[in-house]
Structure formats: structure tokens, C-alpha cells
Specification:
- The protein contains nine helices and eight strands.
- By secondary structure, it is an alpha/beta fold.
- The radius of gyration is 18 Å and the shape is globular.
- Strands 4-3-2-6-7-8 form a six-stranded parallel beta sheet, with helices on both faces. It has a two-stranded antiparallel sheet with strand order 1-5.
- The protein has one domain: Rossmann fold.
- It starts with a strand and ends with a strand.
- InterPro entries: HAD-like_sf, HAD_sf.
- Keywords: Membrane, Transmembrane, Transmembrane helix.
Length: 225
């Protein structure tokens, strides 16, 4: 199993990395953000919401990638928007989404314990950086690894699956054996990082997913907590 080298301190340093959607916060964020932001920045585009639903169905049918889906969603529902305006809207969205959906307390408690223990804590998520940053700030997490947006496209692709693992490796540095990593997620799409971590934690309310995760040797916690 690969691990990563930390600065030369002569001791193992713990790294704790958390997914965002349905892991730290109880509900997914992207579609709610599109609707929230369209209502404030481009209200007429709310009429395109049924088209967005059809695009999501097209993705489920395998007609295009998640990266392409997210680009189409941004262009359809918001058009071209200034990045600073998206960040400000993202801060407003984070407050509204947390109030509506809530944090998953069993996971945020774990994150706070990692922070108190001096672990190097990060959030690694497929959510767009311009609004995920607000969630990270509210948890006191300085490091965010998320999907980038340049106004019309996604440089480097969606921060998802193998791409998320690569981004995490870039952040940590060269593989070595003096770092112990915890990774927490609700999604089997994060299997590349869950399999890599010495302390993989899977969050779910599904019995079938629980059994599958346990069979892989991952720790499982109840997503209702």
C-alpha cells in the first residue's frame, strides 16, 4: 500500500481527508447550487431546469462524462458569470444549504477530533471550488482539493475517482512510508482513495453498501448519525 512522505520531522504524521457531499454535509450540493445561483444571478434560466433533469438522465445512460455534464449544467443554468460573483453566491449558498440540509455530525465530530489531534486535514471533493471553499471555511479546514472552473470549462477535469486520487497525491507529494492517511467518503467512486488509505471510512445508510464496504475491509459509519 502506498503512503506519502511528510516533512523531515522523524515521526509519522497523520493526514485526514474528507469528501463533502453526503459525507460532511448531508445532501448533494451541485444541483441545489445551480438552482440557488440561477435564482439570484439569472432567474430566466430557471425555465431550463427540466432540460437539466434530462441532461442528468443522459449522463446516467452513459451518453457523456461527469465533466461534460457539469460544464453543460453551468452553461445552461448560469451562462457566463464572473468568478468573484460565483464565490460570493457560493458563500450564500453554503449558509442556506447547511441550514436546510445540515452537517452529518458523526463525520464533522471525527473531523474536529482530527484537527485537535494535529492531523493535516483536507477536504477533497468533486464539488466546484468556488462554492466548496465556503463549506471548508465553516469547518476551519484550510486545504481544499476540488473541481476548478475558469468561466466556461473545467481545467484538469472533474475532481472525481482516479482524478481525485491524483490531485491528493499532488498535494501530499511523493509516495513514501511515513504518513498515515484517513479518508472518509460516502461514494464507491472514491474507491481509489479508500483503497489507498490506511484508515478508510465509508459513510452510508444502505445495508447493501455497508456489506460491500465491510467486505473490502473499510470501516463503516452510519450516515444517519
Amino acid at each position: 500500500m502506498n503512503r506519502w512522505r511528510t516533512p523531515a520531522t522523524g515521526r509519522v504524521m497523520k493526514v485526514a481527508i474528507y469528501d463533502l457531499d453526503k459525507t460532511l454535509v448531508r445532501r448533494a450540493t451541485f444541483t441545489p447550487f445551480l438552482v440557488f445561483a440561477a435564482r439570484r444571478l439569472a432567474p430566466v434560466r430557471l425555465t431550463f431546469t427540466p432540460v437539466w433533469v434530462l441532461l442528468m438522465i443522459g449522463y446516467k445512460l452513459g451518453l457523456y462524462s461527469r465533466t461534460r455534464l457539469k460544464i453543460m449544467g453551468m452553461r445552461l443554468m448560469l451562462g457566463r458569470q464572473d468568478l468573484a460573483l460565483l464565490r460570493e453566491t457560493g458563500r450564500q449558498f453554503a449558509d442556506a444549504h447547511i441550514e436546510r440540509a445540515g452537517w452529518l455530525e458523526c463525520v464533522t465530530s471525527m473531523l474536529r477530533e482530527d484537527q485537535s489531534a494535529g492531523a493535516r486535514v483536507a477536504i477533497a471533493t468533486a464539488a466546484f471550488e468556488f462554492y466548496a471553499q465556503a463549506f471548508a471555511e465553516r469547518l476551519g479546514v484550510e486545504t481544499l482539493i476540488a473541481t476548478r472552473w475558469d468561466g466556461m470549462s473545467i481545467p484538469g477535469g472533474n475532481c472525481y475517482g482516479d482524478a481525485k486520487r491524483r490531485r491528493v497525491e499532488e498535494w501530499l507529494g511523493a509516495p513514501a512510508s511515513d504518513t498515515r492517511m484517513r479518508f472518509v467518503s460516502d461514494s464507491f467512486a472514491d474507491e481509489p482513495l479508500l483503497d489507498l488509505a490506511q484508515d478508510p471510512v465509508f459513510v452510508t445508510t444502505s445495508g447493501a453498501k455497508r456489506d460491500r464496504a465491510l467486505a473490502k475491509g473499510w470501516k463503516v459509519i452510519d450516515g444517519e448519525g
